[in-house]
């Protein structure tokens, strides 16, 4: 047992943690990308004219959103045990958060005034043009801050990936902590890195929210 | 019947105790988060700069440093630093309470701010004391605003309880995973586990809807019985910045 705070351990583990941090960032960026694209697809599918489409889409989103990410991750990793864990992590993070972002998009789409839809019909735009040129540009602009906030929450949930042996920051922290029995130093450091990275980003999002007039 | 379900029936007492640990962590964590949320949220609206400052720093600290790290810090780092060891479930309750308390504080702050200014002025004009003003006028109205966001936070807290598995508390996930290991039926085991969490989440949502209905009744807003079955709304998830 070591007493107090061992600064040598901090110096030694910092490069390892930062190396892991790159993987953390990669997973966050790619996971956000999956969530942003898939969420949009789900939101548009949720407005399909047939209930045969909308009801199952709603049910699946509700299920994904109400069940723990950790169970989804561990389950997926056990089922697809030949796939690289990082890919599974990105896919599961993306799908889990798509369930949230789809609701955000849905609210954004609902926020587009009805007159816009009517104008599209009056101009006899095809459904594709209606979505692409009129509805989505307005809807997406409204939901950008909310999407950013979900990206930040996803960032803070990337430590879950360590459980399926993705070598991100917390994985490195646990490894170093176990090897050198220096948990205090590495977890404090990892927590501070999260704080330093997420706090300015959330301030930025708040600014964006204000500028877009929320 | 598949091996997994017959084993599940056989080991039912163990499953029940796992479920109990999960529920305990959820309910106690939520209670601690609730107390902290009100304390920090009310401090954020205080006239004292010191109270506002403390609340801001605590909220940003616990929101900014991932829950996962906080839990690990309590479980692995704290015993090394202080020589004081907490039971895994207690670690979970404290970490969930601190983390979701910080998120909840933003909800409380936002809801109190959303009560129309005129309500404060009317309460002052009626010469109500600050405590009565808060308790009788502001909070009943703010409370109705808070419930949907609290529901979201509560479900998120429930969804974090499988973390207990990592610090070797025998929660629902741990128990079902041992059953999986014994039968090798991966898909059935994890789908059952997901379904169990889904049912828990839906039950908690309905309880919160019940709470919302009674809170609305106190303000003279009656909602039909149908409102009890509605699912969580996502639009409220963005209230108070990051969820």
User: If you compute it from the alpha carbons, what radius of gyration of chain A comes out, rounded to the nearest whole angstrom?
Assistant: 21 Å
Residue share in β-strands of chain A: under 5%
Average pLDDT figure of chain B: 89
Helix content of chain A: over 70%
Largest β sheet strand count, sense and barrel closure of chain B: none
Largest sheet geometry of chain A = none
**Residue share in helix of chain B:** over 70%
**Assembly state:** heterodimer
Total strand segments of chain B? 0
Provide the low-confidence segments of chain A as ranges. none
Query: Order of SSEs of chain B, N→C?
Result: HHHHHHHHH
Strand content of chain B: under 5%
Please summarize what this structure is.
Chain A has helices spanning 7-45, 51-66, 69-79, 85-110, 114-122, 127-157, 169-180, 183-211. With 214 residues, chain A is mainly α.
Q: What does this protein look like?
A:
The complex is a heterodimer of chains A (214) and B (243). Chain A is built from eight helices and no strands. Chain A has helices at residues 7-45, 51-66, 69-79, 85-110, 114-122, 127-157, 169-180, 183-211. In chain A, helix 4 crosses helix 6 (127-157). The longest helix of chain A has 39 residues, at 7-45. The termini of chain A are far apart. In chain A, 44% of the residues are buried. Chain B has 243 residues and is mostly helical. Helix content of chain B is 76%, strand content 0%. Chain B is flat. Chains A and B meet through helix 2, helix 3, helix 4, helix 6 and helix 7 of A and helix 3, helix 4, helix 7, helix 8 and helix 9 of B.
């Amino acid at each position: 047992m070591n007493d107090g705070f061992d600064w040598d351990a901090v110096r030694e583990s910092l490069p390892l943690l930062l190396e892991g941090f790159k993987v953390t960032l990669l997973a966050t960026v790619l996971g956000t990308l999956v969530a942003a694209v898939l969420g949009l697809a789900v939101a548009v599918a949720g407005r399909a004219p047939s209930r045969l489409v909308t009801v199952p889409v709603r049910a699946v989103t509700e299920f994904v959103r109400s069940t723990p990410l950790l169970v989804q991750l561990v389950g997926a990793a056990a089922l697809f045990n030949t796939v690289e864990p990082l890919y599974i992590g990105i896919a599961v993070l993306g799908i889990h958060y798509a369930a949230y972002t789809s609701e955000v998009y849905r609210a954004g789409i609902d926020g587009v005034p009805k007159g816009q839809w009517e104008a599209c019909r009056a101009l006899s735009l095809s459904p594709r043009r209606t979505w692409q040129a009129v509805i989505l540009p307005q809807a997406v602009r409204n939901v950008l801050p909310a999407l950013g906030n979900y990206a930040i929450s996803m960032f803070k949930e990337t430590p879950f990936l360590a459980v399926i042996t993705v070598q991100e920051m917390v994985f490195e922290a646990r490894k170093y902590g176990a090897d050198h029995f220096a948990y205090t130093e590495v977890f404090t450091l990892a927590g501070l890195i999260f704080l330093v990275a997420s706090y300015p980003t959330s301030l930025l999002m708040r600014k964006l929210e204000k500028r877009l007039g929320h | 019947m598949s091996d997994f379900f017959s084993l599940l029936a056989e080991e039912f007492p163990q499953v029940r105790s796992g479920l109990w640990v999960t529920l305990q962590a959820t309910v106690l964590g939520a209670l601690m988060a609730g107390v902290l949320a009100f304390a920090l949220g009310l401090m954020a609206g205080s006239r004292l700069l010191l109270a506002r400052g403390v609340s801001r720093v605590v909220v940003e600290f616990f929101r900014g440093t991932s829950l996962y790290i906080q839990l690990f810090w309590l479980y692995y780092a704290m015993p090394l630093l202080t020589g004081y060891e907490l039971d895994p479930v207690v670690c979970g309750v404290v970490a969930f309470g601190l983390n979701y308390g910080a998120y909840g504080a933003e909800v409380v702050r936002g809801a109190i701010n959303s009560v129309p200014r005129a309500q404060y002025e009317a309460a002052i004009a009626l010469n109500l004391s600050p405590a009565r003003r808060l308790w009788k006028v502001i909070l009943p109205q703010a409370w109705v605003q808070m419930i949907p966001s609290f529901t979201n936070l509560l479900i998120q807290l429930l969804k974090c309880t499988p973390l207990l598995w990592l610090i070797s508390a025998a929660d629902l996930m741990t128990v079902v995973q041992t059953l999986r290991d014994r039968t090798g039926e991966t898909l059935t085991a994890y789908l059952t586990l997901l379904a169990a969490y889904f049912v828990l989440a839906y039950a908690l949502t309905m309880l919160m809807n019940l709470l919302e209905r009674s809170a609305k009744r106190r303000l003279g807003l009656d909602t039909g019985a149908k409102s009890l079955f509605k699912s969580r709304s996502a639009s409220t998830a963005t209230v108070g910045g990051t969820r």
